[in-house]
Structures are given as structure tokens and as C-alpha cells.
Amino acid sequence: MIRGLIPIMVLLAAALLLPGSAGAFTVRTGDSTGVPAGETINDSLLISGQEITIDGTVRGDVFCAGQNVSITGNVTGDVICAGQHLRISGISAGDVRLAGQSVSISGNVSRNITAFGQTLTLEATTAGETLFAGQSVHLDGTAAREVRGAADSVILSGTVGDLNVTANRLLLSPKAAIRGKLTYVSDRNAEIAPGATVSGAIIRIPPEKSKAVPSGWGQNRRPASWIAGRIMSYLTHLVIGLVLAFFASKHFRNISRAMLARPGRAIGRGLLILLAAPLVVLLLVLTIFGIPVAGLAVLALILAVFISRIAAGMAVGIKISDEYLKHRKLSFIGSTFIGITASWIVFSVPVAGWLLSALAVLWGLGGFYFLVRPKSAA
């Protein structure tokens, strides 16, 4: 099973490491926000809210995070969104990358689709590749190239190039058409209904139970769930990182530069913060009036740990931009996108990635220490 998932992670890394435009941004926030029909935004759009509706045109990329997201308009760049319920039925000239509880994609997608969620309904017509992970997946659209993914249940009712999946149950309905070969990892044969067509070879690979879940993943977690969880974490940190890079660019740029200038000192200061914080909280709890303050201190520490990895990703992005992408002249938002993406791919590597993630937390906490006491970074 892991052998079948390695190409998925490779495709994922390749897809996520190719950022779209990193120019100007239009930012919109609110409980209910969006782009009404008839309106055209000539920048990339960074949008967040409980209800997001985009019926107009965005001439750039769309980055969004919300509870319910609906995009019926036209987007000339990439669509990168995270939320509870996502419905994309417009036209996208770039890649579409989504993570949510329920995800529905129809309309036309000119490039690739990357979708992760509990329930996925993919009805789009796409000229690129499709990558997915979920629990229940319905493939009802038309994909000119390969469709690859992992899920508990996969039902194909559309037309694809090659199909390469890991699934407990794979069903090809009477309308299913595979123009290339079918390769699947499963402990039982695929259900192929009369009328379904497969032009190429059909290859079933029995799962290797001894290698189904690598050490450290947790024996009760399915690989598809693990992948979906990692992508949800990535998109959550990415959206928050882009918001921070937009609204507090000066502070986080200074933090990142200080972290790069004194990485060892930053990690040391971060370690001291983690060691001292529990003692401070304990001392506060021992006093009557300090209990509420202790609670606030715990919340502040949790928030700092969460944002620390974002700060580390920002620093990595600046380093990559300075060393390898000088000709691109990326904005801080652009380097943040690249840094968080690269960091999360590394953090997803078992064992080594987790150790680097822990170091990133210490590094980022040290960066916040430098923000409070800038002379210590000198």
C-alpha cells in the first residue's frame, strides 16, 4: 500500500511547489463575503469568512478559508482553499487545490486538481492530472490525464486517462471509461459493471499488510486519512501565514531575518521559553489571582507554538528566495507561500520530518523572543 502512496506524495510535492503569481493581493474578510456577479478583481484574492461566495471574475489566484465556500465565477489563476464545505463550479485557468470535509468540483479546470476531504465529488472537466485522498470519492467528470489517489471507497462514473488508486472498494459504473490502464491496490477485486470500459491493462496489487502503515503513523490510522490530515494542516497554516504576511509583513520579515542571522541562538531561546513556560504557569496557579492569568498564558503559549512553525516557514521562504529565486523578485507573500509549502513537505517525512518540525517550533519561538528583545538578536 505504501508503494502505491509514494507516487502520490511525489505528485503532491511537485504540485504544491509550483506557486502561482505572487504580485498584488486584494483582501476581503467578514462573516459573509465574496465577489458578486459582474465584479472583476484584477489582482490575486485573499479571502476568509464563514460564508464565501465568488460569482464574479478574479484575474489572478484565489486563496480562501471559510466554513462554506462557493465559487461559480471565473478564475484566471490557481484556486487554493480550505473549509468545511467547498463547491467549485466555475472556470479555473490554473490548478485547483482544495481540502475540506465535503468537496465538490465541477466546471472546467485547465490544469491539475488536488482534492482532500471526507467526501469528494469530482465532476469537472480537466486537461491535467487529478490527485485525491478521502473516505468516499466519486469520479464523475472527464480527466484527460492520470487520476491518482487513495480512499476507502472509489466510484468511477466518468472518463479518465489512467486510473491509479489505493482503495478498499473500487467500483466502475456502466458509464465508466478508462482510456489507459487501471492499477489499483486493494485486498479484493474491483467491481466492473457491464458497459464499463478499460482500454489498457488491469493490474491489481494486493496490499502488503506488514507494510500497510509505517512505524510512527499510528496503527489505527489509514494512509488516506493521514494524507488528508497533513494537507488540511498545510492549507490551514498557509492561509494564516499569507494573512500574517499581508497584514504584518514588517514584523514577520524582521523576525525571519533575525532567525536566519542567528539560527542557533533562536533555537536556544525557543528551548528556554518552552522550559520556563510550565514553571511560570505553575507559579501563577499557586496564587489565587494568578489563575486567570495562567489560563491566558497557556493560550498565548499554544498560539505562539502554532504560529512559530509559520514563522519558520517564512524564514525558509526568504532563504530560498534569496539563494535560488533572485531573478523572480518575489514579494514577502510569494516567499511565504514557497517557504510554508517546502517546510510542510519536509515535516511530512516520518521521524526526520517530526524532528525538524520540533526544531522549527523552537526556531520560531526564538524569533518571537527577538521581536520582544531585538537587541538579543544582534
From TrEMBL:
The keyword Lyase does not apply. It holds the Pfam family DUF8173. Residues 230-366 form the DUF8173 domain. It comes from the Bacteria. Keywords: Membrane, Signal, Transmembrane, Transmembrane helix. Residues 1-24 form the signal peptide. InterPro entries: DUF8173 (IPR058486). The chain crosses the membrane at residues 231-249, 270-291, 297-318, 330-347, 353-372. This is DUF8173 domain-containing protein. It comes from Candidatus Gottesmanbacteria bacterium RBG_16_52_11.
